[in-house]
TrEMBL record:
Source organism phylogeny: Bacteria, Bacillati, Actinomycetota, Actinomycetes, Micrococcales
Protein name (Swiss-Prot/TrEMBL): Peptide subunit release factor 1 (ERF1)
Pfam families in alphabetical order: baeRF_family11
Organism for this UniProt entry: Microterricola gilva
Length: 388
């Protein structure tokens, strides 16, 4: 089982804007398997040695270095924590504090010392949070699951949720009944009885629509204000009927096919994560197409100087960054002019990370992705709010 602490955008922004002359950022690939925890602890000790070397070169005195390394040493000795990991660990330390995050994404190992934290890899979890709802929809039952990066999905109790098709019909205020006193014919297999209820296959579809509307009403308070994908697990024709009455704007087009009463929650979660990957891939493809269109009109760039200036003056609309590449150097706070250094050290910082930081402050959309998903194939790319 994976254990995660995915930071919110506000948390990442707070880390990105924090300043301390001796800020240490460490990223460590880990494993959710407890048997692998000792290897992760050993690797973190090696990374601390590298951070100590960079701190010494940056002029930190022994007390400052000890304040950082002692905190991390205490953390390494917390064996209970090390048996509850995910795929990566991010650690941010200064002489006065330590913060850690367990992340579902597989990140490359990194050690950065500067006057600010290295947050670019942390954005990967925020870009693709691996969170969704699954509505397991059958005629005789319905359940709502919340899917996250953890292996175990969580069932959500929804007030007013109908138990089955018959219950949904009873709860539907616009149920398809004939007007009072209306006399109907007695067609077999699809007519309307004197009780005013459509019979046969047509009548069953009417009851499914009533059931679906009751579910939509029950879910509305839970989904209000959210932009999390909702994935349906179910069979036809109920799935299509539900889609026809649903008003949730983030209903996924993909379906987990089959009778969800026969599919365990864990299997539904695994299928939902595959669908989430498809959703994110489609979103990235659209954004890359938009980048190409914008670039033709002077509203997109892959030039370091242009993008740094745009970030400085709040002109970036969407920023793509390769989470695994770093360009050492600095960016002038006023002009956005870039100075690139030949090597990383404890004085400079990653200029792409600084571009990301400035874009965050201006409310830009940030996409921390793999190299193949960055338009142009570089370390970064940006669409702009206005032509350069």
């Amino acid at each position: 089982m994976q254990h995660t602490d995915i930071p919110s955008r506000d948390t990442i922004l707070a880390l990105a804007t924090a300043r301390d002359p001796k800020s240490v950022s460490i990223y460590l690939p880990t494993s959710p398997l407890p048997k692998d925890s000792e290897a992760s602890r050993i690797e973190l000790r090696n990374q601390v040695d590298e951070a100590q070397r960079q701190l010494s070169e940056a002029g930190a005195d022994k007390r400052q270095i000890a304040a950082i390394t002692d905190q991390i040493a205490d953390f390494i000795e917390d064996r209970a924590f090390w048996t509850h990991l995910s795929n990566s660990l991010a650690l941010f330390a200064t002489p006065s504090g330590l913060k850690t995050f367990r992340l579902p994404n597989r990140l490359e190992a990194a050690v950065e010392v500067s006057d600010r934290f290295y947050v670019k890899p942390l954005m990967r979890a925020a870009t693709f949070p691996q969170t969704a709802f699954v509505l397991a929809l059958a005629q005789n039952s319905v359940r709502l699951l919340e899917i996250s990066a953890d292996d175990v999905p969580h069932r959500i109790e929804v007030a007013g949720m109908p138990e089955n098709v018959a219950d949904g019909a009873a709860l539907d205020p616009v149920a398809g009944r004939a007007p009072a006193g209306h006399q109907t014919g007695g067609r077999s297999g699809g007519g309307i009885t004197t009780a005013g209820r459509i019979q046969g296959a047509e009548g069953q579809k009417v009851r499914m629509a009533e059931y679906s509307r009751a579910i939509v009403r029950a879910l509305r308070p839970t989904f209000t204000g959210l932009n999390v994908p909702l994935i349906i697990a179910g069979a036809e024709p109920l799935v299509s009927i539900f889609r026809g009455v649903s008003t949730y704007p983030h209903l996924a087009t993909q379906t987990i096919a089959g009778n969800p009463e026969e599919i365990p929650d864990a299997e539904l979660a695994a299928s939902a994560r595959l669908i989430l990957d498809e959703i994110y891939a489609a979103q990235l493809a659209l954004l890359r197409e938009s980048f190409a269109d914008r670039q033709a009109n002077g509203r997109a760039s892959t030039d370091l100087s242009d993008v740094a200036r745009a970030a400085t003056f709040g002109a970036i609309e969407t920023l793509f960054v390769d989470i695994d590449r770093s360009i050492p150097g600095k960016i002038d706070a006023e002009s956005g002019a870039v100075t690139v250094d030949a090597a990383d050290d404890g004085i400079n910082y990653g200029v792409v990370d600084e571009i990301l930081r400035r874009a965050l402050l201006s409310g830009s959309q940030i996409l921390a992705v793999r190299a193949e998903d960055v338009p142009g194939g570089g370390a970064f790319a940006a669409t702009l709010r206005f032509a350069a």
